[in-house]
Amino acid sequence: MSSILKIALKLLVNDRSKFIALLVGITFAVFLMIMMMSMFSGILSRSSSSVYNVGAKIWVMDPAVNNATSSIPMPDYVLSSARSINGVKYAVPIYFGNALVKLKSGAYQAVSVVGLDDATLYGRPELIEGKIEDIYAESAFIVVKDAEFKKLESPAVGTEFEINDHRGLVVGLAKVASGGLFGIPTVYTTYNRAITYIPSMRFTTSYILIEPKHESDIPFIQQQIKKLGYQALTRDQFVRKISDFYTYQTGMGMNVLMMTAISFIVGLSISGQTFYTFILENLERFGALKAIGAKGNELIKMILFQASFTALIGYGLGVGLASALMILAKLRLPSYAAQVTYTNLTFAFFMVLIMAGVSSYIGIRKVLQIQPFDIFRG
User: Fold this and answer.
1) Residue 371: which pLDDT band, with cuts at 50, 70 and 90?
2) pLDDT tens per residue, range 199-218
3) Which residues pair with 173 in a beta bridge?
4) Cα–Cα distance measured from residue 227 to residue 70, given in angstroms and rounded to the nearest whole number
5) Do 159 and 290 belong to one domain?
6) How many domains does the chain have?
7) Does 209 share its domain with 106?
8) Within a domain: residue 152?
9) Tens digits of per-residue pLDDT, 320-355?
10) Is the domain of 224 the same as that of 80?
11) Together in a domain, 213 and 267
12) Are 37 and 99 part of one and the same domain?
């Protein structure tokens, strides 16, 4: 480190009150930005949990569908047509619906029901207890053991319940890649049992899952499905569609954007005002350095170093504090949906750089305007 930067560091840290105030302002702003963006990222990830858990490469749906939980049933001919398209290895139906479960205690609990294709069980979850073949038994259901598992009174294999006035039997416990968004437990059964137990409209196929023979066949399959008046999306395209729905067609995205902007403005105002006060209180020292031969670019380097040093420490503290709080929250609240992503960290980092740049600009203007004889004359 050059001597001029050592002087800048000593000027900064020796004024502990201003240095701490700068750190607190930037840390608090970064903390709020990371928390808000991480919660939004977690919500978007949970909103696509069904897509991740099933793992199909192509999803066929009605074009009006905008999220995984609001499916529009399709007629059976769409499935037959999909199976006849060149490049399709196989195509199977899947059912998504909701039902009311009566537990052993007499309490009622809403559940999300996934009906797997009877022949292939494509999209089945990974079992941690029981055998997948038992799903073909009478009244058999597999319960997902996730954050919402306790809402079903933590059933074991062999537990009986009622679902829409039908007998249900737990034959297995499963785990999935991602939990749901709305805090509703999930159960799996066969497709035919699901449409039998749950009242539905004339059509019952929620989605058609397609496995292409080759990746290069996907565009042709999508074109053929479009000719039928329906839409075929890859997993990533479906996830993006769901994310766009929650971001732009609900109030969620705008609310998060506003809170993030407010956090940035608060951090910018605190850091800018505090750094300007710091410059004013050390104006004589900067003037003395200028009088003994320090050049303007060296003074600019000092101020940029001070602002950047404070901003980076504040960024690290803010990220660390937010990450620690999210870890603690997930330990106590398993359904807590926040997650830190590289996008969130990068966005917050650029916001901190803007704070440092604005604060530096304010300080640089003041320091460059000072004349050494004004200092000594005073």
Assistant:
1) low
2) 878 888 999 999 999 999 99
3) 129, 143
4) 23
5) no
6) 2
7) yes
8) yes
9) 999 999 989 888 877 777 888 888 899 888 888 888
10) yes
11) no
12) no
Q: Which domain holds residue 153?
A: 75-229
Over residues 94-146, the pLDDT tens digits come to 999 999 999 988 899 999 999 999 999 999 999 999 999 999 999 999 999 98
Higher-scoring residue by pLDDT: 45, 362: 45
239 assigned to some structural domain:
no
Q: Say if residue 164 is in the same domain as residue 255.
A: no
Sign of CA dihedral 240, 241, 246, 249: positive
Residue 376 has pLDDT above 60, yes or no: no
Inside any domain, residue 234: no
CA separation for the pair 308, 345 (Å, rounded):
17
CA 376, CA 271: separation in Å to the nearest integer? 30
Q: Which residues lie closer than 8 Å to 358 by C-beta, 6 or more apart?
A: 268, 272
What distance in Å separates the CA atoms of residue 215 and residue 55, rounded to the nearest whole number?
A: 15
Q: Which residues contact 20 (CB under 8 A, 6 or more apart)?
A: none
In a domain, residue 57? The reply is no
User: Parallel, antiparallel, or unpaired: how do β-strands 126-130 and 186-190 relate?
Assistant: unpaired
**Are both 218 and 260 inside the same structural domain?**
no
State which of 176, 197, 229 marks the end of a domain.
229
